Amino acid sequence: MEKTDALRLLVIAFGAYIMPFVSRRLMLPSAAGEFLFGMTIGSLFMEPGYSDGFIRYLSVIGFLLLMYIAGLELDLDRIAALRKKQFFAYGSYAVILVAGAFIMARIINMPPFFALIIMCSAIGLLFSVMKDLNIVKTALGQMLLLLGVIGEVLTLAGITVVSLIARTGDAQNIARQIIGIIIFITSIFFIMKVLKLFLWWYPEMNRFFMSVGNPSEIGVRANLVNMFLFAAIAAVVNIEAILGAFLGGVIFARLFADREEMLERLSSFGYGFLIPVFFIDVGSRFRFSDFTVPGVLEGAVLITASILIVRAAAAIPLLWTHTPRRQLIYVPFAESFALTLFVAATATGEKAGVIEHSQASMVILTAVITAIFFPWIMKLLYKFMPVMK
User: Residues 234, 244: contact at Cβ < 8 Å?
Assistant: First the structure.
């Protein structure tokens, strides 16, 4: 490691340490503060296009770990207990989200690709914000997490299709990749069934996978192997590795009910350093100067408003769930800060030639606006409208 890279790593480590204190003063989630810190050091100290291999690898691992922990936190038993009316409400949410995104893209006179931007959802930053507010385990938290998963799957599917078209342009190859994705998802459910049967025959293996507190931390190692395994399988079949890590966490959550200690270990390991590095690294890729181009600010505000309007419309069917109606005001804001998927979708759109550079800058500024202000609004809502634990 060169001196410059070592100094950058020191600055990032220092930022990861101080930003929780600064963020608390500003009433921002720690993740949003870390993102702002990354933007600041990126604009002041890093040349455009700079990419530190070591820091970038730490960032990727942090993102995978964040998604894996989010998968572990998802309570599938609570989802399985949903009534038909509630399933219908969540399905209606997805339909309105997609349809509303296409309609809104047409209304604001943007290319069809912007429908993907408007429907863009992700649970990475959302999960961190809910962790800060301590509402992950509540009924509202689980609902927001499930809606985020629905939106993220739809977004990743859209990014995958656009990426495949840009990379191959061949209908046969695209069909082959889609079949591979279907096989992957089917395999996930098959593996879950097999492992559940295996653990029923050999219950002592529960201790092997969830063992904590021993010198070797076998349980932590087993979970990390599981995370990388599913991330690797996803990458092989051309699915985003983060989705694979999330599904790996979901499988463990389904198999092991008693996972609180493991979650605590992984969370302290991840949120102590790797996950903050991810948010700082993402922020460092933005430059304040990117947003001074004429028309970019107006376009970003228009896209942000479109995102909120579509989420508000999609939330209407949720009136028929068990969530207290007044708490549904959280939904439009909680599901609107995709951050990294905004960046991924923009990069894919530019590479495919379906959006211009100025339009890409609008999306990036939208990512910044939503990542800073919407988590802050969520915190403000929580202050005046606490969520029952």
Answer: yes
